[in-house]
Amino acid sequence: MTTGRASAAVRRPVRVGVIAAILTGVLVLLCCTGGTAAFFLSGLSGDPENGDTLAGWGCGPVRPVDIAAELPRFTEYGDAQVRNAAIIIKVGQDLGVPSRGWVIALATAMQESALRNLANSTVTESLSLPHEGVGADHDSLGLFQQRPGWGSVAERLTPAYAARKFYEKLVKVPSWQHRPLSVVAQKVQISAYPDAYAQHEELASKLVDALAGGAARTVEINGKAVCNAAERGEIAASGWTAPISGDVGSGFRTADRPSHNGVDIGAAKGTEIRAAAAGRVLVARCDPDDRGRRNCDVDGYPGKGGCGWFVDLLHAGGYITRYCHMVVQPRVTPNQIVPAGEVIGQVGSSGNSSGPHLHFEVHLRNDRSSRGAIDPIPFMRERGAPLRAAE
Predict the structure, then answer these.
(1) pLDDT (tens digit, 9 = 90+) per residue, 159-181?
(2) CA-CA-CA-CA torsion sign (55, 375, 244, 309)
(3) Which residues make beta-bridge pairs with 361?
(4) Please, what's the b/e burial string for 125-146 (b: 16 or more CB within 10 A of its CB; e: otherwise)?
(5) CB of 188 within 8 A of CB of 170?
(6) How many whole angstroms separate alpha carbon 317 and alpha carbon 49?
(7) Residues 378/53, Cβ–Cβ less than 8 Å
(8) Alpha carbon of residue 249 to chain centroid
(9) End-to-end CA distance of the chain
(10) Contact 140/123 with Cβ under 8 angstroms?
């Protein structure tokens, strides 16, 4: 499958502003050496602050949060802020809100208050009540910067009350578990900076994993939190899902294929391919082959070159995912915002390909070149959306 071709363009990272026949696993799928031209994009968050993967906690039965216990430490936040995060998660657990809601709530509070229970310099009463800092945004108070319509001064400065009010409004947002975090948070908060919430999704997932037993890796199925089962449109609390259900054949940068910058997942032609996470479409087009031909509406063959019909998506945290060898033109267009799990195309064999499969790549730090590529197998496993037969 492809490794990121770039059609004769200069390969460099994209700089981004604040805030986008069935093959078996035994068959070694041959693929392209393609990629795509790098270019400037803006509108989503930049690099992750702390490393490139989630913290690595296992996923077992979701652990009830004990806010009185000793809590793990994070370099990004002090003990009081982590305890506030624990309170937010516990309230979600007590209310029966699925773990995706905990991630959204934490990301929202990270943006609104940096997880600090803020008084307000313009609300005199708030200054005499317990607080962890003083803000000055209108008459907003507390972890979620809630205004008077959310409750009294004392109520808004009570973390458990503020979290409960947030969840009560969250669960009324239609399809909230499948929509982009920034969209859902904005529906609740009505912020002047709606795109800012997404930049905290990665760290919010880490906190949920650390405080609740890997809960960011779970997906809600028939009312139960199931670990490592995000596929077929089901979205893990982390916000990720497997792009297709199928067995991994050719792996990432193997001894036989050291320049293979992704993994090949076998599937029947026409199988729907889903966005692995919410994001912005960077590219959706036919990748030229090694002779410069843009003939992606026919099956390719080994040695042809190029990714065929393909899509690149930019996600919060500076991650990019690539989907190659589609059978027909992708269903999405550049700059389109797509939610996690949305169908973006269909499996095919266009470009440098030996048969129907999806070539799937993950890149870090907004870098679409081979330098940014990482192994998708551990990346997706840590997000509760493992690729099958990956071990």
Answers:
(1) 999 999 999 999 999 999 888 99
(2) positive
(3) 322
(4) ebeeeebbeebeeeebbbbbbb
(5) yes
(6) 9
(7) yes
(8) 24
(9) 20
(10) no
Tell me if 229 sits within 8 A of 197, measured CB to CB: no
Q: How confident is the model at residue 221 (pLDDT cuts 50, 70, 90)?
A: confident
pLDDT, the chain, mean: 85
Burial class (CB in 10 A: 0-12, 13-18, 19+), 301: middle
Residue matched to tokens 């709530």: 105
| Cα dihedral 77, 315, 178, 73 in deg (nearest 10) | -20
Average pLDDT over residues 119-126: 96
101 φ, ψ (degrees, to nearest 5): -65, -35
Length of the chain: 391
What amino acid occupies position 366? N
**pLDDT at 133 > cutoff 70:** yes
Structure tokens at 260: 């293979």
Please give the Cα distance from 82 to 367 (Å, whole number): 32
What's this model's pTM, rounded to 2 decimal places? 0.82
Distance of CA 301 to CAs 148, 171, 248, 293, Å?
A: 64, 48, 19, 14
CA atoms of 68 and 206, how far apart (whole Å):
20
Phi then psi for residue 107, to 5 deg, are -60, -35
